[in-house]
Amino acid sequence: MKHFIINSIIFLLLLQSCEIDITNVTIPQNRINDTLEGTLPIKDYIKANINGKYKLSEGKEHFGDVIFLKWNGRYLTAFCKKNASFIVLEGGIRDSAIILVGYWRFSQGSDNGFVKLSIEKDNGARELIAGLKPRTLTISGEFETDATQKINLTYNDTLKSLDFLIIAHRGGGRNIDRHPASENTIEMLNYVERLGANGVELDVRITKDNIPVLFHDEYLNKRLIREDYFIGKVSDYTYQQLRAFCTLKRGEKIPALKDALQFIIYNTNLEFVWLDIKETGSVKQIAEIQKQYSDLAKSLGRKIEIFLGIADINIFNEFINLENYRDYPSICELDEDYVIKANSSFWGPRWSLGFLRERVTELQKLGKKALVWTLDEPQFIKNFLDKSYFNGILTNYPTVVAYEYYSN
Questions:
Q1: Percentage of residues of the chain with pLDDT beyond 70
Q2: Range of 95's domain?
Q3: Mean pLDDT, to the nearest integer, of 74-103?
Q4: For residue 3, what pLDDT band results from cuts at 50, 70 and 90?
Q5: Are 75 and 127 within one domain?
């Protein structure tokens, strides 16, 4: 019995120290930069005429029959059906042709490769550069797998406007999703719009010196940080200690909530932020920051809403004890009575409760909206878009939600 206990303890210690072996996806940024060297920037009016639904004549075995192209700033994303794939491109103009270069990847795997496309002068570039909508628009080129393959897509229809919330989980995606930045970081916030998201959920914890920071787990661990020796709760350390001694999986530092919100307001087009409060005793500090940055956004004319998340009864009780609590925008995951009492703008039930059509409709009649979390499986995403009345979806795979939304 003694040996069994000792062996069990050793096993648990080894298990705790294990790190999931994740193959990271590397963006071929040097090749992208080299290919675009010397090109002229693509104007916004050109980008607007490239957005749309396209049909593939080549490459559909890899990406599917139809893809949707949408620019966000300097990046053009292709949302694809097959293999839950997507393509992220940058562009430039050279010799009356539009050059598009970047990478493809499977959102639920590590498969990826380099992509180089172009719109030639006689395939629509002439009209696009002149500010006109081409009668026909064809984009062609190559993408790399184990071998180089051809891709050809032709414009088919306009892209419908996005009046739905596509909210990226953990600031854009989990570490296991192989993005180029760690979850809940400013670097991830800088990337997330390329995935089709117009909103983010952020996990908020409090340090020993009462600084709200972004971190999902209660304990520091090898899933999220590099250091073996750094153990204990986030709340066991001051903010400066975490910044000095703790490095996240992709090399970043744990960000303060204030810094993350400032970055979102000044450096992104995100319209929605869900602050998932992870522990009691922190609602007041987080609410003060929410108000500070909501006021900042309003003063700048920035279209964005920041919400406090009410995930359980303890957070709810702390929330309603705030002075003027009804004035703080919130998302309540509890039943409808709590949503109404907290004056929450959104109800946020989990996806496993089903479509909840009647309950969602009744709240919408009261001027409230509803979000569902966390939806990742493509068929479930499609079903909820087809059959429910939710105003948004929280997901680890915003590219999948974007494809299903634009095709719905």
A1: 94
A2: 29-157
A3: 97
A4: very low
A5: yes
Burial (CB count <10 Å: 0-12, 13-18, 19+), residue 377 = middle
Q: Do both 94 and 206 map to the same domain?
A: no
Among 308, 305, 311, 371, CA closest to 338: 311
CA distances 317 to 279, 320, 325, Å, are 12, 5, 11
Task: Tell whether 151 and 219 lie within a shared domain.
Answer: no
Beta partners for residue 68, in sequence order: 53, 79
Give me the number of domains the chain comprises.
2
- For residue 27, the tally of other CB atoms under 10 A from its CB is 16
Q: Say how far apart CA 93 and CA 103 lie, in whole Å.
A: 19
pLDDT score recorded for residue 20: 54
pLDDT digits 0-9 by tens, 109-133: 899 999 999 999 999 999 999 999 9
Helix (H, G, I), strand (E, B) or coil at 20: coil
Quote the radius of gyration of the chain (alpha carbons, Å). Answer: 23
Question: Domain end: 138, 157, 176, which one?
Answer: 157
Are residues 110 and 197 located together in one domain of the fold? no
Based on the fold, state whether residues 291 and 239 are members of the same structural domain. Answer: yes
The answer to whether residues 152 and 295 belong to one domain is no
**What are the helix and strand counts (H, E) for the chain?**
14, 17
Contact 356, 388 (CB under 8 A): yes
Confidence of residue 268 (pLDDT cuts 50, 70, 90): very high
**273 and 322 share a domain?**
yes
